Amino acid sequence: MYKFVLTACRPLVYAITKRNWSGQENFPKNQPFIVIMNHVTEADAFLVMHFIADEGHAVRALAKDSLFRVPVLKTILSKSGMVPVARGTSRSGEALEAAKRAIAAGESIAFFPEGTLTQDPDLWPMQFKTGAARLALATGAPVIPVAHWGGHNIMHRFRNSLANIWKRHDIHVMAGPAIDLSDLNHDSEDRETVAEANRRMETAIREMVAQLRGEPVPTQVWDPKTSAYIPL
């Protein structure tokens, strides 16, 4: 199913995008890894999955559980090995346990650590949730940051509707080197350690997005809890 979906979607993706892709050599060849990505529109997953798959890798992505209740899409997600996340409930930890089992079985996992589409008015990455950091500390799997920019020209944020598919849009996707967490104690229950790992992940993605946008790295970050910027 995973291969079928990618193959079926590839002609459309290639028809509406001018792909500016780099850094794919940073994906490990012989071990499972964790991908973290910024999240701007619902088109992100299709674009980044093609970026990863074109290097010969398949990853299981964590997706909000509401998508698994949509007819047809439920079948596609389930049979493609995607992992449902019951956000904001007592069952949210089940997704992390499923991700740990996948890593142990040699499979790679993809996260949108923001947990949802960015609410930042200027589309910068907002504060990360800690799931990816805790998974990395618990498993020791390398964390590969992937930043992208341009998908918002294809699909509107929040409205889930196509903005303009009658022209090809420049899409920039870049994978960076694995984030160094080797000096941390790998205790996924240690709050300070988790916070530091999370900070490094946020910093890596923020700096890469700034590079793709050709803009300075922001000095503040959007806090979705308060719907306001806070200093870094």
Automatic annotation (TrEMBL):
Q: Tell me if Acyltransferase is a UniProt keyword of this record.
A: yes
**InterPro entries from the entry?**
Plipid/glycerol_acylTrfase
Q: Which Pfam families match?
A: Acyltransferase
- Keywords recorded for this protein, A-Z: Acyltransferase, Transferase
> MF terms per GO, please?
1-acylglycerol-3-phosphate O-acyltransferase activity
Q: Which domain of life is it from?
A: Bacteria
**Domain Phospholipid/glycerol acyltransferase: start-end pairs:** 33-151
GO cellular component terms listed in the entry, alphabetical order = plasma membrane
GO BP of this protein: phosphatidic acid biosynthetic process
**SMART domains of this UniProt entry?**
PlsC (SM00563)
Question: Which PANTHER family does this chain map to?
Answer: 1-ACYL-SN-GLYCEROL-3-PHOSPHATE ACYLTRANSFERASE, POSSIBLE ACYLTRANSFERASE
Q: By what name is this protein known?
A: Acyltransferase
- Per the UniProt record, the source organism is Gleimia coleocanis DSM 15436
Q: Kindly list the organism's lineage.
A: Bacteria, Bacillati, Actinomycetota, Actinomycetes, Actinomycetales
